[in-house]
Amino acid sequence: MDMVKKVVVRCITLFISLCISLVIAANLFYRRLKVGRDFFRMKTYVAPQSLLDSELGIHNYIYLKNQGIKLHYVEKGDRCKPLILLVHGFYESWFSWRHQLGEFSADYWVVAVSLRGYDDSDKPSGTSEYTLMKMVEDLREFVLALGKDKCTFIGHDGGAVVGWVLVSKYPDLFERFITCNGSHPFAYKTHLKKSFKQMKKSWYVFFNQMPYLPELCFAANDYELLCRFYYEDNENSETFTDEVIQAYKYYFSQKGALTVAVNFYRNIDFMSSLQIPKMRIPTLIIWGTENKFLDKELAKLSARECEDVQVKYIDGAGHFVQQQEPVYFNKLIWEYISITQ
After folding, report:
1. Which one of 119, 120, 157, 295 is the catalytic residue?
2. Is residue 1 over pLDDT 60?
3. ∠ CA(260), CA(142), CA(126), 5° rounding?
4. Dihedral sign (CA 92, 98, 99, 104)
5. N or C: which end of the chain has fewer CB within 10 A?
6. How far apart are the first and last CA of the chain?
7. How many CB atoms are located within 10 Å of the residue 194 CB?
8. Burial of 303 (0-12, 13-18, 19+ CB in 10 A)
């Protein structure tokens, strides 16, 4: 019976993915006719000065022996102080934490890690190299390699999804868990089945199930669709300036970088039986009320998976909340750290 359900769910998923892809592909090739032959020309970029700014932190690497890959990270602060680990989302990079690296470095050793395949971390080939559990084990070994007994985990979007599993599974490594616009996997799966609103917001999840087409679309016309993720969720032009967008274009123009981002979604199992223990670590959920990708209800549903939790909404903020509202976001973090010490 379970096998039949899995086949049915898989067929429905593929049907939705195909319908969305046909619409996007038709629009893509229509726009190719309007723009001309340069529409599909892949552009490459050099690193903008903002990525090389030493004020943001020092670039470093750790080789994970058990996982067999090298992870890139940016650190700021005294290594003797408590560790804050920052984990970015799936269409971002360590650079998304530029407003937090310096903010907390006076009292903490702040480390913004690049997930496997991202930025200057190793990019192993093969779709199966980007499963949720591989990323979980990467970060577990990464924390141990940093030499800390405990740390504070702060994750956004997909980085928070990895964090939900990591911190629940290995609670002894963490003092507190802070997630911003990243729902618990069970909450997301449950809500997706019941909410047509969330289904519409999740169009990119289904679209990314397809081979080849997502990478082609995201790169077309100078990464236009990729940039729409940032622009459409944000009305403040000061958040995603030209220099910030150049930084993201630089990383995603590297060979295989877009495929890495898409491969996580290709590994999503909508019928997964993954067992995730109840979250025992003190947890703070931060959510932008105008999130165009994740329904606000997901914050409440995720809170049900925790024993000790607070939910804080940032009115008017979208999905990229730590970049859009860094002052208020950082204030919430400071307040939560102070009451959970």
Report:
1. 157
2. no
3. 25
4. positive
5. N
6. 49
7. 10
8. middle
Would residue 157 show up in a list of annotated catalytic residues for this protein? yes
Neighbour-count burial of 222, counting CB atoms closer than 10 A to its CB (0-12 exposed, 13-18 middle, 19+ buried): middle
- Predicted confidence at residue 38, as pLDDT, reads 87
Q: Which of 164, 136, 132, 152 is nearest to 306 (CA)?
A: 164
| Residue 119 annotated among the catalytic residues of the structure | no
CA gap 169, 257 in Å, rounded? 29
**The token pair that represents 77 in the structure block:** 């602060």
Give yes or no for residue 72 having a pLDDT over 90: yes
The amino acid sitting at 106 is: A
> 188, 265, 295, 336: which one is catalytic?
265
pLDDT digits (tens, 9 = 90+) for 278-309: 999 999 999 999 999 999 999 999 999 999 99
User: In the annotation, is 30 catalytic?
Assistant: no
For residue 244 the two structure tokens come to: 């910030």
- Its pTM stands at 0.95
Q: pLDDT for 227-286, tens place per residue? A: 888 887 666 667 888 899 999 999 999 999 999 999 999 998 877 778 899 999 999 999
